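Figure 6 in text form: structure in, sequence out.
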């Protein structure tokens, strides 16, 4: 088996928010540190660094994951999405971010980037969640400020708005007429 020196550097290339990026890092570098220090994507926050708080959550190939529990080298060649990618730098907030703003679902904001990335993934997979399901999903995140209720409201409101938009854009069914009718 190939032996890799502890501090030898590797160039890790990945697609960060849709843009090809790469930088050298040690084989033991965490993805959270690589994003912040190697690629300058400091929107991803680092709290506990052992998988408990959820502040470092990003999406890898569309799935929410703890970047402090992932090595940067494991993200080689994969798509990584962070909070910076939820809306354009000069564009309007995403619907989910706007709902967080409306419902005061953040205060200090330290937990917010990770929670947004989990909620963004969750709502794609579960467009019609109950309040209990949203609370269970949020149990993977620690927030010291909000008491969680405003976050739950923001997620449920976003889900309802997306369903309403989908229903409005669905083609209406034309009435079926029987060939025997005269
Ligand atoms: S910093 Fe990754 S879970 Fe807390
Ligand atoms: S808004 Fe401060 S920790 Fe969540």
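Output sequence:
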């Amino acid at each position: 088996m190939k032996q890799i020196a502890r501090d030898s550097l590797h160039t890790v290339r990945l697609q960060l928010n849709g843009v090809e990026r790469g930088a050298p890092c040690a084989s033991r570098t965490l993805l959270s540190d690589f994003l912040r220090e190697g690629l300058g994507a400091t929107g991803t926050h680092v709290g506990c660094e052992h998988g408990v708080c959820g502040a470092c959550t990003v999406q890898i190939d569309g799935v929410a994951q703890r970047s402090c529990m992932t090595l940067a080298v494991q993200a080689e060649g994969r798509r990584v999405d962070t909070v910076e990618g939820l809306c354009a730098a000069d564009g309007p907030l995403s619907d989910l971010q706007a709902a967080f703003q409306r419902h005061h679902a953040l205060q200090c904001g330290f937990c917010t980037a990770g929670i947004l990335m989990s909620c963004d993934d969750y709502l794609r997979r579960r467009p019609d969640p109950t309040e209990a399901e949203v609370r269970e999903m949020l149990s993977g995140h620690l927030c010291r400020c909000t008491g969680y209720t405003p976050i739950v409201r923001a997620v449920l409101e976003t889900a309802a708005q997306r369903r309403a938009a989908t229903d409005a854009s669905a083609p209406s069914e034309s009435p079926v007429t029987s060939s025997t009718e005269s």
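Caption detail: Residues 106-112, 143-146 surround FE2/S2 (inorganic) cluster (ligand 2) (CB under 6 Å).
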